[in-house]
Write a structure and sequence with these properties.
By secondary structure, the protein is of the alpha/beta class. The chain has two domains: 138 residues, 3-Layer(aba) Sandwich (Rossmann fold), CATH 3.40.50; 151 residues, Rossmann fold, CATH 3.40.50. A five-stranded parallel β-sheet has the order 7-6-5-8-9, covered by helices on one side. It has a four-stranded parallel β-sheet with strand order 2-1-3-4, sandwiched between helices. Helix 3 packs across helix 4. The longest helix has 21 residues. The radius of gyration is 19 Å and the shape is globular. The model has no long low-confidence stretch (mean pLDDT 98). The protein binds phosphoric acid mono(formamide)ester and norvaline. The site of norvaline has 9 residues, from helix 6.
Length: 304
Amino acid sequence: MAIKHYLQFSDFTLDEYEHVIERTRVIKRKFKNYEPYHPLADRTLVMVFEKNSTRTRLSFEAGMHQLGGAAIYLNTRDSQLGRGEPIEDAAQVMSRMCDVIMIRTFGQEIIDRFAAYSRVPVINGLTNEHHPCQVLADVFTYIEQRGSIQGKTVAWIGDANNMLYSWLQAAEVFGFHVNVSTPKGYDIDPQLVSPRNQRYTVFANPGDACDGVDLVTTDVWTSMGYEDENAARLKAFDGWIVDSAKMARAKADALFMHCLPAHRGEEVSAEVIDGPQSVVWNEAENRLHVQKALLEYLVLGKVS
Ligand code: CP
Ligand code: NVA
């Protein structure tokens, strides 16, 4: 049987997402009721981090424990990956010792190569190009708060980064629209978007992108790995802050999301992220619940 990986948002069909979302609801309810649920007893998750993390590590590690399994943390600094062991060799070795692997790394081609040599499912815990687990949590959070996301409009204000590319794939799968506004020079790389994707519109002015939308979302102006560009980005992104003026152009019941960590006063004002429309803490918590459903699905298939 072919192994199922989760390397990009587009790797799952709507039917698979509907299953994972339903399982997320069930698994979240059990967690809230302190009801033990150990479908992954004796299973092991290996987590490989080549970049920093708080939420991704914690949610995968805690989630695997809560499902009855074990999680092992490796990073570049003190594993052989940092000393140049070929990714293909690492994939073959690691995947003989565990049941599922999560990787946070730089280029998408690294995780693609790893997956090609892995005997077990591989999950993308963030690459330069994609962050599917976060957008899965975001879509779940939207549905939990407001119902179906189909036909809704999301405003993406800021950098054309991994989060945006995953949102654009999610828009195709779930049938919603994304209004994108990025500063000049930081716009969408067409090679990272399917030529068939008609689910987004580009706006030169970030305020215009927020007009009448159901959800406003943003992310840091400088992603991990791009720190050398920070000073230039601070200048270029001037005006792209999500503040109350921009939120006022969205629907009155619009939500605000941010994958975190956030920089108040840069991409978002304190008033917005700490205000009544913000659901960032639910969004962060939901990483735990959606990823438990994802682990269950990738390791055990569709259970009910
Ligand atoms: N949102 C997110 O992935 O956070 P971490 O970098 O803390 O894992
Ligand atoms: N775009 C950010 C997301 C961090 C969770 C980054 O890649 O650093």
